[in-house]
Design goal:
140 residues, alpha+beta, six-stranded mixed β-sheet
């Protein structure tokens, strides 16, 4: 976990730091089956950064995506308020989080910035755009 400048004081620097962190962790991905390595970095409101990479499994269903790996690290550090997520993939076209990752992110944020990166290409969107009608369990 690293601390980075809060987006309110230095929004672009914070996102640049997330991109660097996601690129670095992507190199540690375990993707022997798909060969598709992904790195993710999440920024919380407190200014902390959490990274994750995809970890494949031969049973496929036990595979965990980079975004969910970063969320698990965030939660295990007792953080609950993500405000931005960067996802770095290979190739030239940025790739969007899968549906399961979108729903996991939506568990902790109604909306947040999502920055998708591949090579030198970046695309920015929001969680609400990617998952407009997220499932929310009414706890009473």
């Amino acid at each position: 976990m690293k601390s980075i400048p809060a987006p309110s004081s230095s929004r672009d620097r914070a996102i640049d730091a997330l991109v660097v962190a996601a690129r670095e962790v992507r190199q540690r991905a375990y993707a022997p089956y798909s060969k598709y390595k992904v790195g993710a970095a999440i920024l919380t409101r407190s200014g902390k950064l959490y990274t994750g990479c995809n970890v494949e499994n031969s049973s496929f269903g036990a595979t965990i995506c980079a975004e969910r790996a970063a969320v698990m690290k965030m939660i295990s550090a007792d953080e609950r308020d993500p405000i931005a997520c960067v996802v770095v993939t290979g190739g030239t076209e940025p790739a969007s989080p899968c549906g399961m990752c979108r729903q996991v992110l939506a568990e902790f944020a109604d909306d947040m910035r999502i920055i998708l990166v591949a090579g030198r290409n970046r695309k920015e969107t929001t969680l609400a755009t990617l998952l407009p009608d997220a499932f929310r369990f009414d706890r009473g």
